Amino acid sequence: MEQRNYTEKIRGERGILERIMNYIPFYHGYKEKELRRDSDRMVRADVVNRLKQAKTILRRQFADPSLVGGLTTADTFRLETVNQRLDRVTQRVDRAVAGYAGMLASIKVKEDKLDMVIEHDLRLIEKADGIKTDVEKVTMIEVGSMDWKRAMDTIITEIDDLDRRVDERSCIFRGLEE
What is the domain count for the chain? Predict the structure, then answer.
């Protein structure tokens, strides 16, 4: 879902009183910032949901103790690494600084710059979706095979890349402070 779709969804859910208040000077700018903040929150929630789905898919595949018991130490390490890194990046996205936090917040983001942050967050969604797709694919591969090992290593690399993008998001916010 593109950035404008998230923003439009929020706009469509406004009540009549909010539409009337939109004509009052200064209220419109305040409300637009609120819409962008809500859009930012929705984008981050989407990333978190996709990552949680990926973890659930992986957890279901390895719910069978006989399957886990057959893993080598290196394969177990790969599996645990994917789980731990998924947990870490999910928490980082979930707890990331929200788009526009209000007039008295310690971090204020200029309205026109928040769109850049949301664009970055949309790339996070695409990356999270890629991770989820890769996890779905790895469940179709014979556990412990060379293809499975390569696929798990690729997932680890993709999660690390997503983690770096979360760092970039923080850098973008630092650059946008007023």
Answer: 1
Q: Would you state the torsion angle of the CA atoms of residues 83, 145, 138, 72, taken in this order, to the nearest 10 degrees?
A: -20
Lookup result for tokens 């690729």: 154
- Give the three-class secondary structure for 95: coil
Cα(6)–Cα(155) distance, rounded to whole angstroms? 28
Q: Do 98 and 35 form a contact (C-beta atoms < 8 A)?
A: no
Which tens digits make up the pLDDT trace of 104-137? 344 455 665 667 777 787 888 999 999 999 999 9
**Residue in the structure block whose two tokens are 């850098």:** 171
Closest C-alpha to 156, from 83, 87, 50, 82: 82
Determine contact, residues 24/87, Cβ cutoff 8 Å: no
Full-model pTM: 0.72
N-terminal to C-terminal alpha carbon distance within the chain: 29
